[in-house]
Amino acid sequence: MQRSVLVKGLLNLQVACVLSAENAMQAVDHIFCQEVIDIIFFDLGDGSINNLDFLSVVREQGNVRTLVVYGELPLALRRSVEKMSTLSSTRLLGVLDKPFQLKALQKILCDFKSLDCSAVGQPLAALGLIPHPQVLKGLMAGEFQAWYQPKFNLHDGRLFGAEVLVRWNHPHRGLLLPRDLLAAVVAYDLIDEMFKQLLDQGLEFMSRLRGQGLDLGLAFNLTVSQLVSSDFAEHVIQRLHQYEMPGDALTFEVTENGLQDLPASALDSLLHLHQAGCSLSIDDFGVGFFSLRQLAHLPFDQLKLDGAFVRDVDDLGNRAVISSSVALARELRMDLVVEGIENGHTLNTLIDLGCSFGQGFHLALPMTAVDFAVWLQCRVSVV
């Protein structure tokens, strides 16, 4: 049970691929089959494992970057382990108690990201694109799924909508996140096919919710390359009609940098979507080079402030950007949505600075359609 909880926690924290082993033999098989393993969560107190033999395999194979000791350790043993920098010549990343806390797990992952592990293989993204036949087969098999992360009114906790995020249930590599799959999807010119599948999944999900009396708007991420297509907006509108959905049920997010030197055909698509009632949002606002003149003259309804500005809300520069964005959105009569709200202090500070809408792990994690439907029903029941 604890292992299952740990796996779910890692996936919720957007770890791209998690391999679970019921015993030491399965774990050893994983070690031999994988080119690189970033972290092994290793239960030092599991009496069924010969610790020395297992750690010897880890050392000899040489493809494991770090170890995390995981378990209910006596205080004296825990203190001893915490002082160690390696176990069997493999870097010791930390100690995680049972039952684990999500914040402690998140810190473990942050500590890993800060390490220089280049000596042990290459990271997943550096191993090259996922082969074209795999991506195409995954799309045809319906392995790409829409996940949903709720957005909230920060003042009263009401649901403001949800962002649609793609996940790929890869048959061999596990659950893949956008950072692991989008480069291949774009390189093989399959971004439109992936979007169409996610759009249909989202519209079908909204249709079911509306049948239950739940009204929800969804936001989808777009690239300018999609907007350049002459039939893109028409496809969206046809799907809205097919599912009997109003245009304002959908919001489309385009990154700020993507709007530089916007082609006329892409602008036409944006105008077409806006005229159909769809909302338009500038994603990753604040990290690009979008001019205020463009901002005032394009048909956008929402600014989505990049999460980089809220990682340290006590920084005076970040506070200035947040406050300025709040004022700018108000003057332009736009909604401002803040990404990356990870803790209560950040949430309270954003509210004090005048922010009204936001999303992040502190508020709600991304969920499958099934989990999100249950989550919504529980909220309705509570109300």
Structural class: alpha/beta
Radius of gyration: 23 Å
| β-strand amount | 15-25%
Number of DSSP strand runs: 13
Mean pLDDT: 85
**End-to-end Cα distance:** 31 Å
What is this structure, in a nutshell?
The chain is α/β, with parallel strands linked by helices and 383 residues long.
Overview of the structural elements:
The protein is α/β, with parallel strands linked by helices and 383 residues long. Helices cover 43% and strands 20% of the residues. It contains 15 helices and 13 strands. The longest helix is centred in the middle third of the chain and has 21 residues, at 191-211. It starts with a helix and ends with a helix.
What key attributes describe this structure?
four-stranded mixed sheet, about 375 residues, eight-stranded mixed beta barrel
Describe the secondary-structure layout.
Layout: H1 2-12, H2 24-33, E1 37-42, H3 51-61, E2 64-70, H4 75-82, E3 86-87, E4 90-96, H5 102-113, H6 132-140, E5 144-153, E6 159-170, E7 174-176, H7 178-187, H8 191-211, E8 218-222, H9 224-228, H10 232-242, E9 250-255, H11 264-275, E10 279-285, H12 292-297, E11 302-305, H13 316-331, E12 335-338, H14 344-352, E13 357-358, H15 369-382
Parallel strand pairs: 1-2, 2-4, 6-8, 8-9, 9-10, 10-11, 11-12, 12-13
Antiparallel strand pairs: 3-4, 5-6, 5-13, 6-7
Helix pairs in contact: 2-3, 10-11
